[in-house]
Predict the structure of Permease IIC component.
Amino acid sequence: MTEEKKFNVSKLNKFINKFSSNVFVQSIANGMLMILPITVVGSMSTLIGLIPNLPETLAKASSLGTMIASNLISVYVVIALSYALARERKGEIIPSIILSMACFFVLTPVSSFEIAEDKTVMAFDLTYLGSKGMFVGMIVALVVTWTFLKMVEKRITLRMPEAIPTKIAAQFEAIIPAAIIFFVGLAISVIFSTTAYGNIHDFIYTNLQTPLEAMGSSIWSVLLIMFISELLWFFGIHGGMVVSSIIAVLFTTQAYANMEAVANGEVATNIINSFFLDTYKGPRAIALACILVWASKSEKFKTIGKISFIPGIFGITEPMKFGIPMIMNIPIFIPLTLSAAVSVAIAYVATIIGFLPVVSINVPKMFPAFISGFIASGWRGLVVQLIQFVAVVALYWPFMKKMDKENLLLEQETVEVTADGH
């Protein structure tokens, strides 16, 4: 590699590392990961509700489980992202979460309706606590937590006497920044209530969330992100970690909108969503491991395949990426960068032709290939992942066979040299 190329790769690495280590990017990625358990449980409730001839009691229970997981997702997002950011900044976690939640509810419209002649109920609209409120939840959690911790750090607080225990003093010191932030939230709520939007949720949804969802619903944007993710791996950068926050912003709301639709007895319509991508990025790891184990003749590739086979079942590619290696290895550039995009394209086509149902179930991305497809979409999901498996093998095959042949020749030459030496 020339000095100029080394310099360019070094600059790229620095830029990507700076982006991926940004405190807000890290908080979004880690926070969205924290809500995985409740979304998986909600998906399990959805699966139970799909069982034919289910007793009415169980059907109602499964519907409630899905509703609680999906229709309150913005609340969970606020808690998770506020926690993640406070932890990243090593600040007060509980006060940050409470203040973020208070500001989120202040900005969320409350409706009133009569349930009897003499009784009126005030309630939050679940529409704004579900997927429609996710962007507001993200913004509130990050802005409120960061501002609160920054004010505490800059000592914009009540100064307590040293004799007061630290834990008690910390709570009193939080009063001024909490009051300032809370009343700013109230002011924002009042201001938006006088506009045509009525509240900040509808303003954000119309001007930010809807355009981003439109971008996220484009198959071309998905394929580009899949390509970039693997391209970063080619340069030795963990592409999955870098694009995880982008995927969360662009594709998560569609996933929970699908869950909400199913919970309400409606049909899921968002083909491209984060659940879809987690399930149908393709069984690439196990496909490549199979080539190494059963189609390779060189000892190096066979050994790497044996080491990588079990991790490959769970989608872990690092043993192969560093063992083959796939990083900065020109001969493997094409299959490395295209395999995820090809896999997603196969699943997308299968969905738009009506073979594969729209995904509304969150299957953890570490679930074994073929099992994950079956859980997400029944036998059709299993078939699609088998097709993806064949496509990935076909894509890698000519490149891996060429590299295997070269490795085998090198091994034979080494054996001959060693034999001659003795």
